[in-house]
Structure formats: structure tokens, C-alpha cells
Specification:
The complex is a heterodimer. Chain A is an alpha/beta fold. Chain A is about 40% helix and about 15% strand. In chain A, helix 8 runs antiparallel to helix 17, helix 11 packs across helix 13 and helix 11 packs across helix 14. In chain A, about 60% of the residues are buried. The mean pLDDT of chain B is about 85. Chain B is mainly alpha-helical. Chain B has 3 helices and 2 strands, in the order H-H-H-E-E. Chain B is about 35% helix and about 5% strand. In chain B, a hairpin with a 2-residue loop joins strand 1 and strand 2. Chain B has a domain of about 40 residues. The longest helix of chain B is centred in the first third of the chain and has 18 residues. The chains are: A alpha/beta, B mainly alpha. Chains A and B meet through helix 11, helix 12, helix 13, helix 14 and helix 15 of A and helix 1, helix 2 and helix 3 of B.
């Protein structure tokens, strides 16, 4: 099987071929590293990767298969021998986890994140850690201490963020699939900009143990893949309650056969008018085509009014910054991570360490967080935002009592040029409008590519479902993927 | 951010354990002077009747067995400390 053929397969199909000895895991890992050798110097998707170690693991898998023959049961090892990348805020035991920050430049994880452990137990070979905006704060992967990642679809543009490294690696064939994390859209938006599928699972369905905290009430790990089927397969692997994360809950698996036979006929789909501006041409085309496609296939599509969404950005940036300022107070130069030199007392040590260790965007969020948490502003900002968040959750509950799915763009337009985003932080925050509502309400949402702009850049659309509605949103996404993509 | 007060920025920076250079102060003050009023729009929203605390409708508290577990990672975790001595974190003089 040649390199081109390998990349026509889904991750689970590839595992099956490896098991049937139609291709070896070693060949697959080689194919992925050929792509890395070719593109990495230009794209910079990875912060670290391990070629020899990955090949060694692959050879061991191949030997086991050769010795035992074709293994019948696939259910335990659905990713056997498949190379997968992991965002650098997810711990992998014995490997560096920098979170894109100088603060954690030398930090080596003493244990693995539960979701990463689950991928390895499913037979995946973790081949490297991907670049990201520092501690997940950013939408372009330009806010990494280790340099920006470029978009493989157009290297003059950003790949999105904060999981831009994961998206870029999958987009250029530097991994078969990747894990990202999504606090306010960090899986879905880079997936959209790189022409991939990105799934933010229901809050709590994937354990956060070993996911470096940004905003704990919204952080979620999930897959970035080339297809909806891979997204579902990875979702099924990483979900499940975990005694090490008190917010983790038992979550139903996606039935892949049901997902394949999903039919939009008779489905009720709502488009919140606050999340879709017809002025943006790229979105207009993607959304118009998606709506037309849904209607042609028997779905009812209606616009609805959700006025609380006008406040979604404010709610999100108040709450996420408040949580970030609390979570990041652990970086003090004492227990792990960077420690500044030359401090005479412990207060100076804290201050020097944090001043030298954090980047610009992280400092901005910490300051914003401590501002809204300070006694003068706590009631007007933080508490008000908590109340507004509950109103937003109720507005979604009401919408889902009448509709099966919500549909909207993933981002306001195509991937911006490098350097464009940093000029105006407020506009960058506002550009998260379509992704933050699902994050605030803890709802599952999937982004899939549905149109290309005139410059041939991908644009994503997004299905949002009720809690534990992954079966519904992935079914709908698969239906559109099969029938509606411009190829 | 109190729009007229750079002192407020300095106070928040101090609370945050950060020292800002003059250049950083200028940039952050300009950024936050736009960001904060946008966020403060939230105060105009009528939230009467809405709950204060996060409503976790179906996340129940989980309990685990009250059994002793070996602290197997203690030395690995201490290995990550910038400075450690005799099995403890080493810090500058406090008093």
C-alpha cells in the first residue's frame, strides 16, 4: 500500500488493514514521518515528535500481529498501530508538556492524561506533541512561546487556535488524527480553518485529568480528524467517567452504524440569528448551501431568536479569564516549571517568575480575570456573568425542546493572515461568537468543512446538540459529509 | 478597568503577581480600556430570577472508596521542582 492509498483510509479502517497485514504499522508511521520531514519546517505543527521511538512501537505491533495472526476482535484496539498526535497541554508520561509556554519549558509529565492513556490502550501510537497558543489562550497558535504554526492550506495564514498544531498536523498528513482541547472553540475553529472535522464533546464526557487547566468549567478534550467517522471513533475511545475528575460522567457511545444510516428527513434544525450574519460572504455561501441541502433532504430549517447570545462573548471572557487567573496562580516557581533567578524573598520570586514566564496574552487574561474577581467588580461582572450563563443554558434547553439540532458557522470567515489577529485583541475575542455559546452551556458541537472560499480556503459549519447529543450531531455531520461537500 | 486610572492597572497587576514594564503598561492599558467596557455591558442585562451559582443539572457528586493508596508519584513530582532538598521543595527565606 503506497503513501497516497494509506491516507484515503479512516483511522479505524487503517487499524483493520494493519491487523489484516495488508499494510504494516511501520509503513504507516514511515508515511507519516515522510510528511513531517516534508512539511514540518514550513508549518511547525509539532513542538516535539519521536520518530525512532514511534517506529519501534510500530514494529512491535507488527511483530505481535505476525506472531498471532489476524486478531479477530477489533473492539479493544480500534486504533492499533495508528499514529496520533496530542496537543501539548495534555500530559504524556515521561514527555515534556509545555502548554506553549516558557513557564513549562522543562516540565516533564510524571503521568499521562486519562484521555491520552485511553488512546494508547486503544493501540494508537502517540508520535508527538503539537503546538498551541500559550495555555490555550488564543485563536491563531501565534501566541506560542515556541513560534507560530502556519496553515497547511495556505502558509501565509494562521491555522486557528488554540489547537492549531493538532489541526495543522492532521491537515498535512503528519498524523492520522489528533487530540485537541476546546475551552471556547479551540478544537472547532482550527478544524474549520484547516478543512477538518473537530468535535467538542459534552462537558464531563471526557476526563480532564491530565489536561492542564485553563477554565475548568469549560475545558474539554476532543478529536480533530479528517472525517466524522474518525471523530466518532476517537470520541468513543476517550469518553468515560474517571475517579480522578469529579466532573466526568458516564456518556453513551456513538453507534457508528446508526450514524451511517442517519437521515435528516423530518429533523428540526434551528439557526440562532445572533450567530449568523449574512454579510460575511464565505459563511453565507457555506450556510446557504448547508441550509439548502438540509431542506432538500426533508429537514425543517428555521431561524430563531436567542437574545442572550448577544452577551455570550462578555459572559465567556469574564468567566474564562476569572477561572484562568485562579488556575494559573499555581505557576509560582516553587513546585514545578520555570523559576526566575536572583529573587531575594519569596514574594519577589513569585512576581519575577510569573513576569518572566508568562507571555503577553496570558498576562492580559490574568489581569482581566483578577479585575472581574476584585471586590469592586465581583457583583457587577463575575456574579452577573454566572447568572447570565444560567440564562444562556436555559435558552438552549428551550431551543432543544423544539429542535433536534442548532446550525451555525464555526467562525466568522476564513483563516486570517499571520499577524492580522494580534492587532486588535477585542475583535479577536468577538470572533469567538459562534463557538463560545456551546462551551458556556457544556453542549457538544461539531465543526465540519462545508465550502471553500474563492481563494480555496476551507470554511466550517457547526452543529450544536443537547447534552450527550453526540449521536445526533455526528449523524447529521456525517449526512452532510456524504452528500454535501464541494470536492 | 477604570478608564481613567492607570493606578487600577498597577493594583490588579500587583494582585496578579506580575510586574509590568512601561511599554507593557501602555499596551495593556490601551487593550483593556476597550475590552473591559465591552465586558461590562453584562451589567445592563436583567438577570433577576436567574440563579447565582452554576447549575449543574446532572453532574452528581462521585465518591470513591476510602482506601489507602501508595503515594507512588511523590519522587517524580519532586523531580520537577526547580529546587528540592531532602524530599521537600526548597524556597527562599520567608521570615
Amino acid at each position: 500500500m503506497d503513501r497516497k492509498e494509506i491516507f484515503t483510509l479512516t483511522a479505524t479502517e487503517l487499524a483493520q488493514k494493519i491487523r489484516e497485514q495488508k499494510v504494516t504499522s511501520e509503513e504507516v508511521v514511515h508515511a507519516v514521518f515522510e510528511n513531517i520531514d516534508e512539511h514540518e519546517c514550513n508549518i511547525h505543527a509539532y513542538l516535539d515528535f519521536w520518530k525512532e521511538e514511534s517506529l519501534k512501537k510500530a514494529r512491535k505491533i507488527d511483530e505481535t500481529i505476525a506472531n498471532r495472526g489476524v486478531l479477530e476482535d477489533l473492539s479493544d484496539l480500534p486504533l492499533l498501530g495508528v499514529p496520533v498526535a496530542v496537543k501539548d497541554n495534555l500530559l504524556l508520561s515521561g514527555k515534556k508538556t509545555t502548554c506553549g509556554s516558557k513557564m513549562l519549558q522543562e516540565f516533564v509529565a510524571p503521568y499521562s492524561a486519562t484521555c491520552v492513556e485511553k488512546l494508547e490502550k486503544a493501540g494508537a501510537i502517540i508520535i508527538g506533541k503539537t503546538n498551541m497558543d500559550e495555555f490555550g489562550m488564543g485563536a491563531s497558535t501565534e501566541h506560542s512561546f515556541y513560534g507560530a504554526t502556519r496553515n497547511p492550506k495556505d502558509p501565509t495564514r494562521v491555522p486557528g487556535g488554540s489547537s492549531g498544531g493538532s489541526a495543522a498536523a492532521v491537515a498535512y498528513g503528519g498524523a492520522f488524527a489528533a487530540l485537541g482541547t476546546d475551552t471556547g472553540g479551540s478544537i472547532r475553529q482550527p478544524a474549520a480553518f484547516c478543512g477538518l472535522v473537530g468535535l467538542r464533546p459534552t462537558y464531563g464526557s471526557v476526563s480532564r485529568h491530565g489536561l492542564t487547566a485553563f477554565a475548568s468549567s469549560m475545558d474539554a478534550a476532543g478529536p480533530i480528524t479528517r472525517s466524522t467517522r474518525d471523530a466518532a471513533a476517537l470520541f468513543n475511545i476517550v469518553i468515560g467517567p474517571d475517579e480522578k475528575d469529579q466532573t466526568s460522567v458516564s456518556t453513551p457511545k456513538v453507534d457508528l452504524e446508526k450514524m451511517e444510516s442517519y437521515d435528516l428527513c423530518g429533523k428540526r434544525i434551528a439557526i440562532p440569528k445572533q450567530l449568523f450574519s449574512e454579510e460575511t460572504k464565505e459563511n453565507n455561501e457555506a450556510m446557504s448551501r448547508a441550509v439548502e441541502f438540509c431542506r432538500e433532504n426533508g429537514a425543517l430549517v428555521e431561524k430563531i431568536d436567542m437574545p442572550i447570545l448577544d452577551y455570550a462573548i462578555a459572559i465567556y471572557y469574564i468567566l474564562s479569564s476569572a477561572e484562568a487567573s485562579a488556575n494559573l496562580s499555581r505557576y509560582d516557581g516553587i513546585r514545578y516549571g520555570y523559576r526566575a533567578s536572583g529573587a531575594e524573598d519569596i514574594t519577589e520570586l513569585y512576581r519575577k517568575t510569573r513576569t518572566e514566564g508568562f507571555g503577553k496574552e496570558v498576562k492580559r487574561r490574568i489581569l482581566l480575570g483578577n479585575y472581574v474577581l476584585s471586590s469592586e467588580h465581583f457583583n457587577d461582572c463575575y456574579r452577573q456573568a454566572e447568572r447570565a450563563r444560567n440564562m444562556l443554558k436555559k435558552a438552549f434547553d428551550e431551543a432543544f425542546s423544539k429542535y433536534d439540532l442548532l446550525l451555525c458557522p464555526t467562525a466568522p470567515g476564513e483563516a486570517p493572515l499571520l499577524g492580522e489577529i494580534d492587532k486588535d485583541p477585542l475583535s479577536t475575542y468577538i470572533a469567538d461568537l459562534c463557538t463560545v455559546p456551546a462551551s458556556l452551556a457544556g453542549l457538544p458541537a461539531v465543526s465540519l468543512p462545508f465550502a471553500a472560499t474563492e481563494k480555496a480556503l476551507p470554511v466550517g459549519i457547526q452543529f450544536i446538540g443537547p447534552r450527550f447529543g453526540e449521536q445526533e450531531i455526528l449523524g447529521a455531520a456525517r449526512f452532510l459529509e456524504k452528500g454535501g461537500q464541494k470536492r | 478597568m477604570d478608564r481613567s486610572s492607570e493606578k487600577e492597572l498597577e493594583r490588579i497587576a500587583r494582585l496578579s503577581g506580575l510586574t509590568l514594564s512601561a511599554e507593557e503598561k501602555d499596551i495593556l492599558f490601551a487593550d483593556l480600556s476597550r475590552i473591559v467596557p465591552y465586558m461590562e455591558r453584562i451589567s445592563e442585562l436583567d438577570t433577576s430570577g436567574a440563579e447565582d451559582a452554576p447549575e449543574d443539572t446532572d453532574n452528581e457528586a462521585h465518591f470513591r472508596e476510602d482506601t489507602e493508596k501508595a503515594p507512588s508519584l511523590a519522587s517524580e513530582i519532586l523531580d520537577q521542582a526547580p529546587q528540592a532538598k531532602d524530599g521537600m521543595f526548597n524556597v527562599p527565606r520567608i521570615v
